[in-house]
Amino acid sequence: MSAVYRIVFFIFLCLHVIHANAQAAGTALPNLDSILQQHYAATGDFSRLQSRRVKLRIIGMAPFEIPSTVEAKRPNLLRRDVFLQGQVQSSAHDGKDAWKIDPFLSSGKQTVNMPTDELPALIEEAYFDGILVAAQKSGFQLRYQGEEKLDGKSVHVIKVSVPGTGESSIYLDASNFLEVKRVQKRPVMGQMTELEIFSMDYRKQDGLQLPFRIEIGTKGASQRMRMIIDQVDNNPVIAASRFQRPAGN
């Protein structure tokens, strides 16, 4: 074997080894199932929760802070009460029926059907275990979009399509697999608007990782509405009637 041939053969062998290693590494690349499993492990076992009550403050929607309470119960019951200027705005979903009471509208304190443009957000929020678990359980389309950079950090991007509500892109921190951002198009004031939702200030409570600060704004906006979580109660006793449309109203 000539010296030149040996050199060519050596280069060929190196390229073959590099290609083989690349193929092996490729099989170890993140896939959707492994990322979701690590996300569930990071957030904790929500399956042991049957109900929860969250007290929070909304900042940036008005010149003052707006206190609010969100109650949820399995399988997909949800109620939001917003306390504003001595009045209470209530909206709820009992699994089938979605309704609201808004004393600032012409309907006053009468119960009305949830407006069409507000319904998708309420339905998604009612998924007790979150949109990713709901998507897997219900067979909604989930797609892994790859790894990106977000504020200098690596994130995994998962796109989920929910019938009737649209698509959302979920960004999971590649280091701890917690959700840090969500992008979705939703109707706002009658127009489809791309919203960015940032989750931060995660704290461990009852073995679960929960964000205690959530910021929401239109894509690219410097100003965002903030929701500051003050209290989370896991497994409180909540009557089913709390989510049902008030009788005779």
TrEMBL record:
Entry superkingdom: Bacteria
Q: Which positions make up the signal peptide?
A: 1-24
**Which keywords does this chain's UniProt record carry?**
Signal
What name has this protein been given in UniProt?
Outer membrane lipoprotein-sorting protein
Taxon lineage: Bacteria, Pseudomonadati, Pseudomonadota, Betaproteobacteria, Burkholderiales
